[in-house]
Design goal:
It is built from two helices and ten strands, in the order ααββββββββββ. The protein has a ten-stranded antiparallel β-barrel with strand order 1-2-3-4-5-6-7-8-9-10.
C-alpha cells in the first residue's frame, strides 16, 4: 500500500508543479488584465475621428496560464457594437505573449509581443487586408493597478488607416 501512495504522488508531481508555476513568472503577469474595465477614447479612421466607449472584461483561464476576455466597443462607424473574444497566453518557448483576437467584424489576429512591467507591446502582420500588407501595432500600458491605456495603429501598405486610443479604469 505504501508503494501505491508513493507511485500516486510521483505520478501527480508534474501536475502539481504545473499548477504552482501558474503563480510565478510571466504567466502570472497576465493576471493584471483580470477584472472589469471601462473607459472611453477615440478612433480615427481614414482621417475622421470618432468618440468611442469600451468595456473589457477579463478572467483567468487555462489554470492561470491564460486570461480570457471580452471586448465591447461602441461608437465604431457602421456597427452598433464592435466585440471581440480575446485570449492572452504566455509562450515559455520564446518568452513571448500572444493576444489572440476574434471579432464580430470577421477578423482574427494573433498579436505577438512582450509583457513588461509597463504592459504589453505587440504586433500582428498579415497580407489579408485588401490584398495588401497589413501591420497592426498594439500597446497596453498599465499606469497604475486600476488604470490601463490601450492603443492600436493599423497600417495598410505602410499607410496608417486606423488608430485607436483608449483609457480604461477598473
Amino acid at each position: 500500500m505504501k508503494n501505491v501512495k508513493i507511485l500516486a504522488l510521483v505520478a501527480c508531481a508534474p501536475l502539481l508543479l504545473a499548477v504552482e508555476s501558474a503563480n510565478i513568472g510571466p504567466a502570472k503577469d497576465l493576471h493584471r488584465f483580470v477584472g472589469k474595465w471601462k473607459g472611453s477614447g477615440t478612433m480615427t479612421e481614414r482621417g475622421e475621428s470618432h468618440a468611442i466607449q469600451a468595456k473589457y472584461k477579463c478572467r483567468k483561464a487555462a489554470g492561470g496560464f491564460a486570461v480570457a476576455c471580452e471586448f465591447k466597443i461602441k461608437g465604431v462607424p457602421g456597427m452598433a457594437e464592435y466585440t471581440s473574444a480575446d485570449i492572452w497566453g504566455y509562450d515559455a518557448n520564446d518568452a513571448s505573449v500572444h493576444w489572440y483576437v476574434v471579432t464580430n467584424g470577421g477578423e482574427t489576429h494573433d498579436h505577438k509581443g512582450k509583457l513588461t512591467a509597463e504592459g504589453f507591446r505587440g504586433r500582428y502582420e498579415s497580407t489579408t487586408k485588401e490584398g495588401r500588407p497589413l501591420i497592426e501595432d498594439i500597446a497596453f500600458t498599465f499606469e497604475g493597478p486600476d488604470l490601463l491605456r490601450a492603443s492600436s495603429d493599423l497600417k495598410i501598405n505602410g499607410l496608417t488607416t486606423e488608430s485607436i486610443s483608449l483609457i480604461l479604469k477598473r
